[in-house]
Amino acid sequence: MYNRIVISLLLLLATPLSVYGQKTETVSGEYTYYAPSTVSLEDARRIVVERAKIAALADAFGTLIQSTTMTSVRNSTDGSQVDVSTLAASEVRGEWLSDIGQPEISIGYADGMLVLTAKVRGVARKIEEQNISFDAKLLRNGTTPKYESDTFTDGDDVYLWFRTPISGYLSVYLMDGEDVYCLLPYRADPYAVTPVERGQEYTFFSVQCSDRGEVVDEYILTTDRNISHNHIFVVFSPNEYAKVNDAQGDNLMLPRQTSRAEFEQWLARCRVYDTKMKVKQISVTISKK
Fold first, then answer.
1. How far apart, in whole angstroms, are the C-alpha atoms of residue 152 and residue 205?
2. Number of H helices, E strands in the chain
3. Model-level pTM?
4. What is the mean pLDDT of residues 75-86?
5. Where are the beta strands (DSSP E) in 112-178?
């Protein structure tokens, strides 16, 4: 059995979030990005903010690698300076938990190129132990990893391929404006979060790939814009955790939902008190046919 759900995706709007907990620090960073002509303004804004956050984490906590052909680390009187143009978030010794205020982004032009500078401030934590690494791939119109894509067309099917080296618990959320929808666990699942076994490959949102005898929710991505830029959150922990306080809305064809503010506060609290919880945020672009 399955439920087929059409989700209309809207452009994300940033909102402030405050969290409280132990072993966290307030960090800030700045980054300037020279956007190639092939990168849209929306993508450039997302990239410059992400890199500003990585720069803030690298400056506050250091990096897991000192130098490679792709990353250079330089010492100066005011602390380390890191070239984060190719430095991934997994290569710094800290993790970003939540924003404080909205990123400050200035936009200009230099030598015919779009130039963006972002200043960010947020709550972060030093990584004290080895990170848990899991694989999560968003799939377009296919149920194997070769269909991985972050670019969709209005009406495309979407699936999630997942594998973890340790057993644990998984949930997946989609943010649409000020509403957040729970994609996993499925609406008919008895679980607060979905249990997953180590080493096993899962393709979620597909009734053909389900072997649990469960009622599967399948999803179609749609948009009412020419192009929409959105995010999906994949939340995993080896520890069982309480789900966000969501509820079924008036439209029974949509998943359970909560507000964006409630979701962000829940996620920040979970990450403060569960140091093993990891979140993968997947950026998604949907365009009209």
1. 16
2. 2, 18
3. 0.69
4. 44
5. 113-126, 135-140, 151-153, 156-163, 168-176
